[in-house]
């Protein structure tokens, strides 16, 4: 759990709102929030990034850790569908590059100014983003469990 003074500083400077694992900031403040955490508060270790498909939006979280104190903090942004887009954190934390590529590939989030915005998991010719709830499962790529009449 990050120190209360770190959360308060982020709230005052960026309008951050607490959530269970960290803070939520406006998407326009993501990079400055990550820079402040790295440069002013000692969160120099990048843990990972992930995303969640929600009704009408995609949530993206970046996790960072202060190695000296052992505190971890997750910074969340909400991105509107159908074309979620946010600035890339890869130039603030180099470790974000591949995590953002995975989110692009699986959720369709565009990371502005990303140094290498290519698919990382799915084939280049793959259409769609399989972790979106609206992804049609009956595609040639989708998993189809056997029915009771089919033989395994």
Task: Explain the overall architecture.
With 152 residues, the protein is α/β, with parallel strands linked by helices. It has a single domain, classed as 2-Layer Sandwich (Beta Polymerase, domain 2), CATH 3.30.460.80. The protein is built from three helices and seven strands; from the N terminus they run αββαββββαβ. The strands form two sheets. It has a five-stranded mixed β-sheet with strand order 1-2-5-4-3, with helices on one face. Strand 4 and strand 5 form a beta hairpin. The radius of gyration is 18 Å and the shape is elongated. It starts with a helix and ends in a 40-residue tail after the last strand. The mean pLDDT is 91.
Q: Alpha-carbon distance between the termini?
A: 48 Å
CATH superfamily annotation: NADH:ubiquinone oxidoreductase Nqo5 subunit
Report Rg.
18 Å
Shape: elongated
Number of strands: 7
What is the residue-averaged pLDDT? 91
CATH topology: Beta Polymerase, domain 2
């Amino acid at each position: 759990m990050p120190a209360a003074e770190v959360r308060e500083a982020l709230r005052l400077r960026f309008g951050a709102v607490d959530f269970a694992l960290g803070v939520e900031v406006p998407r326009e403040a993501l990079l400055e929030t990550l820079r402040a955490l790295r440069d002013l508060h000692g969160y120099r270790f990048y843990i990972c990034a992930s995303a969640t498909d929600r009704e009408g939006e995609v949530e993206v979280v970046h996790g960072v850790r202060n190695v000296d104190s052992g505190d971890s903090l997750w910074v969340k942004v909400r991105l509107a569908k159908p074309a979620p887009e946010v600035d890339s954190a890869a130039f603030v934390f180099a470790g974000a590059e591949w995590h953002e590529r995975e989110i692009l590939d699986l959720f369709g989030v565009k990371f502005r100014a990303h140094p290498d915005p290519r698919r990382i998991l799915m084939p280049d010719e793959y259409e769609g983003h399989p972790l979106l709830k609206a992804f049609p499962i009956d595609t040639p790529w989708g998993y189809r469990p056997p029915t009771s009449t089919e033989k395994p």
